[in-house]
Fold this protein.
Amino acid sequence: MSLAPEILPALIKAVATTIEQNAEEVTALDQVLGDGDHVTNLQRGIDALNKQADEITLLEWPAAIQKIGMTLLSTMGGASGSLFGTLFISMSKAMAGKKELNQQEFAEVFFAGVEAVKKRGKAEAGEKTMLDTLIPVAEKMLDGVSMDNICRVAVEGMESTKEMKATKGRASYLEAKSIGHIDAGARTSQLIICAIVKQIK
Ligand SMILES: Nc1ncnc2c1ncn2[C@@H]1O[C@H](COP(=O)(O)OP(=O)(O)O)[C@@H](O)[C@H]1O
Ligand SMILES: [Mg+2]
């Protein structure tokens, strides 16, 4: 990736905007399948990142991504806080020592991050979680999918959660009643991915 960490404040703002614009919808999803706090958890993390944006910009990629992960971990709370935190911290480890990453290297780094989320959440694809957005995106990126198609893959992954029965997280308490609703974390993961891709383009 020939991008410098200077792009991070703009990416954080783009993510903040898309979450704000879709806050009501996502909260409604987490009220059906969970406890309704997913957006507030996420926004707490994004606010903390916004406050650190200038500082993060001065770091090199691995340290910047590490700081993002630590900040999300320490501010968000909820299952999603430890999972999004793990995603970034593990991505940082996978890019150790690198100043720049090309698209293939970034795909490998993202894949490693998603693998760590699977381990942390003890979850796989098909369990109606954020992983149903993250896993197909990571796999298609490794296959070399174009930037234009990444958002579409994320949307398809997010939509696939609707007909799944939840077997992880709070939604799993609902068992078969969880079918018919999109998972909140799958939706925010997709919104974040689409916003980042759009901003980079
Ligand atoms: N074990 C898990 N593996 C992967 N993702 C999970 C897991 N448990 C929950 N999630 C994701 O976290 C989201 C809920 O996040 P949030 O509401 O912030 O936390 P909490 O469930 O603790 O209230 C879910 O919509 C789901 O996508
Ligand atoms: Mg919740």
